[in-house]
């Protein structure tokens, strides 16, 4: 039976309709937040997928442009592949919800969110996040929820709960926090150098709001929730673990994983696995799950070493960062380059500068964002982890890592007025063993400075890990986690920032939430580590942005003209501006406010283009001296072109001091001559003279 539930959420009405649409899904929530409407569904397969050792969860966020009254651009008028925003939203939904499904569950689950309409004051992303949580909670799919998500903005130091598009545009903070009843389970943030204490305050402001939403979800589940279905457990049999320990005692497994070389550790585990395969050759049912069993054995060994003995696999102290190194200008001819190495994680970043016309155009649901001028792209080839597989373009992980580093650096970039360039940085992963996204942030910052981008402050990033015990107060935080500690640990808490505060956070966990002491401890540990990285690695390599862009980078000069004169510069069908471009070889961009950017590598050509533009937009005044080219000769005088589309006439009587019978006696087509403006004639037209030029002109 169709039921509707409503609550007040941050001054707007959130309504959830259950059993109104999509009744064949395991769970469906028809979400309305203001006029934003999203259909969220949760579906699961009847049986586990064969031959896998992971939970096959798929999260989709479908942006439909009809939701904002648009038809898709381009030739194909149908929505194509997911936008970057859709992928990032899917990841934000996935990360807090995945750990709440049973660890031994192998049935395929899809969470789908269809955006049907968008109210600019009510975030469709947030509505979809809540919709996925509600649809799963009321479904028969096993789930340790409910969970809730809240977004926090900050304007003039005041927190805004669930800000709209207009508020986010001027907000110093864009924070998303997911919670269960007791704990925070996900944090995602972009911030304008927010101090750590203020960020923690914002996180727990969101956590408070989440408790109100969870109480609302509890009401819906009580009335509409289905009984959770039983499923086939894919857990490793305990007798297999016991048999493995007889062949490979805990001390031997500890020795196998206790090394700072990833390749050596993998070789040790390979040999152990081969021995076990031989030992269990007769037991087919054990061989099917042996890989998962060895993984679990490694995990228990590493966690015990860290939690009880405070020993890390590579021998480091709990707060110790791996060896650091940094270089700039390692790639010739590019506009800027830098390489940052932290242990076995190595990123090379290349910066490219271009005119603002090459900024990325966006065709999405946010009416405020139609383009972006800073783009960070992250690539993760298989060779970086010693594997081989074909390249199929960036996946969701690569897009997410690129967006995180992009978000980290946005607050320190100069404005378009200060630095009228489109900027692209690309992080190439040369080697990976943990937290390449944070290495990308450090490498990108140095690459921007090497390219001469006048960033306001240096930005660095680091990741903090976690291993927890049986109780909430039994935990160990790990500074600068490597791959093994990420795989077997409970948390990957990434924080970027300047000396003043935080610019981005991304937190992933594998457990059912973090206590406040863990959150506060991780944020403090990340601050200490990023300051160390800046002082001991980045600043000794390059301490400030270079004063000028590189030799091979385009040079851009910006001038301001009267917006009403834009048409004069462009000319009919672009004739005037194209003539300037053809004549000088530069690129010219003009925005609606009259900001003209001239881009080129030849300073003389750029100066010429600027001179022509200034001539076009300048009204002739008496006494003004100009240089023009003779483009037409008549019986009564000569026509001069001062700039494309800007002409004037010199009467035959004003050409020479002596009387002449024919204009051709003095001037020929193509001559470059100086003239002085005499003001307007009786017909209201400007008159020019060669003979009346001042002697010193």
UniProtKB/TrEMBL annotation:
Coiled-coil intervals: 262-289
Enzyme Commission designation: 2.7.7.8
A GO term for molecular function: transcription coregulator activity
Cellular compartment(s): Cytoplasm
Domain KIX: 223-302
GO terms for cellular component: cytosol
Role noted for this protein: Involved in mRNA degradation. Catalyzes the phosphorolysis of single-stranded polyribonucleotides processively in the 3'- to 5'-direction.
Protein name (database record): Polyribonucleotide nucleotidyltransferase
Native source organism of the sequence: Anaerosacchariphilus hominis
Gene name, Swiss-Prot/TrEMBL: pnp
């Amino acid at each position: 039976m169709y039921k509707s539930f409503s609550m007040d959420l941050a001054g707007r009405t959130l309504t959830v309709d259950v059993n109104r649409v999509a009744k064949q899904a395991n769970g469906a929530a028809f979400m309305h937040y203001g006029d934003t409407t999203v259909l969220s569904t949760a579906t699961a397969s009847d049986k586990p997928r064969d031959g896998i050792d992971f939970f096959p969860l798929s999260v989709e966020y479908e942006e439909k442009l009809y939701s904002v009254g648009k038809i898709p651009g381009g030739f194909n008028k149908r929505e194509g592949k997911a936008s970057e925003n859709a992928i990032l939203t899917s990841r934000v939904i996935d990360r807090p919800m995945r750990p709440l499904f049973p660890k031994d569950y192998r049935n395929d689950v899809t969470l789908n969110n269809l955006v049907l309409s968008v109210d600019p004051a009510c975030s469709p992303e947030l509505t979809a996040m809540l919709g996925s949580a509600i649809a799963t909670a009321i479904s028969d799919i096993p789930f340790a929820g409910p969970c809730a998500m809240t977004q926090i903005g900050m304007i003039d130091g005041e927190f805004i709960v669930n800000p709209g598009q207009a508020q986010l545009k001027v907000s110093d903070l864009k924070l998303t926090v997911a919670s269960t009843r007791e704990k925070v389970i996900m944090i995602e943030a972009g911030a304008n150098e927010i101090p750590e204490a203020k960020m923690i305050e914002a996180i727990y402001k969101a956590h408070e709001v989440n408790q109100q939403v969870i109480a609302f979800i509890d009401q819906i589940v009580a009335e509409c929730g289905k009984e959770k279905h039983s499923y086939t457990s894919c857990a490793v049999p305990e007798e297999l673990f016991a048999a493995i320990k007889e062949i490979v005692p805990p001390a031997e497994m500890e020795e196998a994983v206790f090394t700072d070389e990833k390749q050596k550790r993998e070789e040790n585990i390979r040999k152990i696995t081969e021995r076990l395969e031989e030992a269990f050759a007769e037991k087919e049912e054990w061989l099917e799950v042996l890989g998962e069993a060895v993984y679990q054995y490694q995990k228990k060994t590493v966690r015990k070493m860290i939690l009880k003995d405070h020993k890390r696999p590579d021998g480091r102290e709990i707060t110790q960062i791996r060896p650091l190194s940094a270089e700039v200008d390692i790639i010739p001819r590019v506009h800027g380059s830098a390489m940052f190495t932290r242990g076995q994680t190595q990123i090379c970043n290349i910066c490219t500068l271009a005119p603002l016309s090459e900024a990325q155009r966006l065709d999405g649901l946010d009416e405020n964002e139609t383009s972006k001028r800073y783009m960070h792209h992250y690539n993760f080839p298989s060779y970086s982890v010693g594997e081989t597989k074909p390249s199929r373009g960036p996946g969701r992980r690569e897009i997410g890592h690129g967006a995180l580093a992009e978000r980290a650096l946005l607050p320190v970039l100069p404005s378009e007025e200060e630095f009228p360039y489109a900027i692209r940085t690309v992080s190439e992963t040369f080697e990976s063993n943990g937290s390449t996204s944070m290495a990308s942030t450090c490498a990108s910052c140095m690459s921007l400075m090497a390219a001469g981008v006048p960033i306001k402050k240096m930005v660095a990033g680091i990741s903090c890990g976690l291993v927890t015990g049986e109780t909430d107060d039994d935990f160990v935080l790990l500074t600068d986690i490597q791959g093994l500690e990420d795989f077997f640990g409970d948390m990957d808490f990434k924080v970027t920032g300047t000396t003043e505060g935080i610019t981005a956070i991304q937190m992933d966990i594998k457990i059912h939430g973090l206590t406040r002491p863990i959150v506060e401890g991780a944020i403090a540990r990340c601050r200490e580590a990023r300051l160390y990285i800046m002082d001991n690695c980045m600043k000794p390599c390059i301490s400030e942005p270079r004063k000028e862009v590189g030799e091979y980078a385009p040079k851009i000069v910006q001038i301001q003209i009267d917006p009403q004169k834009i048409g004069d510069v462009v000319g009919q069908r672009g004739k005037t501006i194209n003539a300037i471009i053809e004549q000088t070889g530069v690129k010219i961009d003009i925005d609606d406010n009259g900001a003209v950017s001239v881009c080129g590598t030849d300073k003389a050509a750029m100066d010429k283009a600027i001179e022509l533009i200034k001539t076009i937009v300048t009204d002739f005044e008496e006494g003004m001296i100009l240089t023009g080219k003779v483009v037409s000769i008549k019986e009564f005088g000569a026509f001069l072109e001062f700039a494309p589309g800007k002409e004037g006439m010199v009467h035959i009587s004003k050409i020479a001091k002596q009387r002449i019978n024919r204009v051709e006696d003095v001037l020929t087509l193509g001559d470059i001559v100086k003239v002085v403006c005499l003001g307007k004639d009786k017909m209201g037209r400007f008159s020019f003279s060669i003979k009346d030029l001042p002697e010193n002109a």
